[in-house]
Fold each of these.
Amino acid sequence: MKAFCPGHVTGFFVIEDGAIIPEKRGSRGAGFCTELGAVADVTLAENETIIYFGDEPVVAPVTRRALDLFAPGKFMTVKIEHQLPMGQGFGMSAAGTFAACLAAAVELSIQDPKYAALKVTHLAEVENKTGLGDAVAQSVGGFVHRLEPGIPPHGEMERLNIETREAVFCVLGTPISTSGVLTSPDTRARIRDSGEICLRDFENIPGFDEFVDISWIFARDTGLATEKMIKVLDSLGSMGKGSMVMLGNTIFAFGDADAIEKKFTGWGKVIRCMVAENGARTL
């Protein structure tokens, strides 16, 4: 069985991981899903679970933990292809895990396979401190506003009425450790202070321009945006505007995609893709 899960880019957020019940942990924030994501191919096995990224067998602690949560004692061969770079804020950890769990859930005839996959993916991400809200957004696609942390029925989100469009990304350097950011008291405090203001402002006018503008304010106010990011995005001028991909050494921009791609070329790896209209699904 094969399944696909889109990538997800967070623009701004507030960490909400203090709840006793794991299903209530997560984040509030806003972001968008990408048509590029992860594809997983799952087949049942007899005595061992082996997970591959491409052709390489890997430990994949998040995916393995998620599979163990809803299929203890079951063995599988899992092959995951990531269409976007790992560790650059595209939600690839969640995407690969979600796709694998969705395919496994269908293979095992688990009731409500999409919700089952969402639940264990989110729990494994929170437990491993690799993400706090990607899977929730990836379940629906589009531009997503996460109103309350966690997964349904505890968490609450809304898909925003923003038309899909093409995004241009530029990977500017080596990956950023999500767990390193999420466990730093100073960084968490800056994210909380700036994120609360950004979320309040966005809730007043939850539109496309506001999303991009507030994302850039958040990236700079928290100190997460590097000088290089600021220099490259400031150089866009009338071509478009963008912000930092949370949490990665990557920027995104919307506008004149051809001109933006040309401007980004030379700074790093350039990727173009549409905002995803749909969430995780079987293939």
Amino acid sequence: MNERPLLMLATYGMEIVECGGAIAKHVRAGGAAYAAVAFARPESRPQVEAAAAILGITEVVFLGLDSGDLPIGAAAKIPFVELIRRWKPAIIITQDPVHAYEDLDPGRRDIMGVYLEAIALAGRDWRSAECGGWPPHLAESVYFMTPSEPNCLVDVADVWDLKERAMDQLGSQLAFSGESYRRRFSPEAIRLLAPDADPAGEAAALGRALHRTIDLAFHVSQAVHSHSGLAIAEPYRKMGPFALDRLR
């Protein structure tokens, strides 16, 4: 029985599904999984909770932060420190610092610093009363999702159906994707990516059709093209070195 909890620090919510293979496999092995979401809009929250439930996540907490106006100082860090100390995760997954810095989604750069500072502060004797009175807790491992230079892969072929079912729940975010892709791509390009999709159709349906192709291509490229021997994989970069008792 795996009793080492996992915590997903998700910026908008879809990251939970993007890392859904690793999360689902952790839960299947007997571990608990939790998620904290920084910026999810109110209308997206029930959808994120439904997706999380499919993957086996025990609890999702929405921080309700403003992606364009994070408070300075301790205010944004305290709720994350409290959750880390309360849930005591051995493993934390969060966005990649390099990817976050180069991404034009608002708030990704600012919240990255909050995540890392909260992880560090959670392991120190810092503002105990304001952080729920929980004792300090330092996670054993931090993994960055979808990095440009991964150093580990998780085989997700056997849980791909769960990732797909979870993605189906995210109607609001899929609608955003559909509108974004419609502005970015020509109708001909959209039909090439998703032959059955209607380029002028409903935004969420368009976003879902395009995500099926784009997500599969991404996960296959990480696996097959990496010569890893895997078919479909989620890429991660572990923060710090791997400590091995032997080479394998």
Amino acid sequence: MNASSNETAVVVKNLEKRFGSFIAVNRVSFEVRKGEIFGFLGPNGAGKSTTIRMLTGILAPTGGTGTVAGFDVRTQAEKIKANIGYMSQKFSLYEDLTVEENIDFYSGIYRIPPEKKKERKEWVIEMAGLQDRRHSRTGILSGGWKQRLAFGCAILHEPPIIFLDEPTAGVDPVSRRQFWDLIYELSGKGVTTFVTTHYMDEAEYCNRIGLIYRGELIAIGSPDTLKTEFMQEEVLEVLCERPQDAMGEIEKLRGIQEVALFGKGLHVVAQDAGRAISDIRSLLGTTASVEKIAPSLEDVFVSLIESRDRADQPQQEVRK
């Protein structure tokens, strides 16, 4: 990240989107600094795509204010579109066109000057690793190649801010890793990246993360900040024989809030680590390994969601 810059690329205050009586985004506020990789994390239906569509000028907000690259999301949507790159969940490529033809098409849309078109086209082809496939029909490319081509087309005009909506959904792990290398490279050049994802490992690559749930921003901070400041419970790693069988027994213990399979063992969320370690060792015997660990982002996210659900429950009961 371009850490020397404290300037903001995106500013959002009480942004809201309603569809009839349904509140898709509920008074969300945050800022994204120039050169930052900002992750927007949440389950499907949480409001990630709706937020990104408001910020990219595609959808008008119902309430609140926001600026992107200094332009107002309510009144300057066209100016925003000219100053950002946007890659949606469904790669916006024309499958019947060749790789080169797709790039030429987007060069026209972004009004790239004739003298720069060839240079930018070659940059995209090289970046995407498509030198030998420039004349291939886009529809026959693998998911990873389509993804890099779509990314290249989205940043042909060298925008200062790029919005990526679930850019690695359905792409193999190697292609996902290569894609994030490209994002890091651009961030090093001062480009701001706003990326939505539901992959917890990808969230770790971001400088800061906003967690959105049911349209509300429930936490924001760096991955380390979220793990150290937002997780009120403690997390234990349990390695034992037949972890699935052990899971049901551990869940019955007092003070245990959640037990989940994690790799070859279990992650146990407990109110008091000391008591939980003692109880689990008594339950499973000396062959089991039980130790307190730093929470993963997944642990933090599940804890925050469950905490929010518990807070909402009494309100729902009162309404009844």
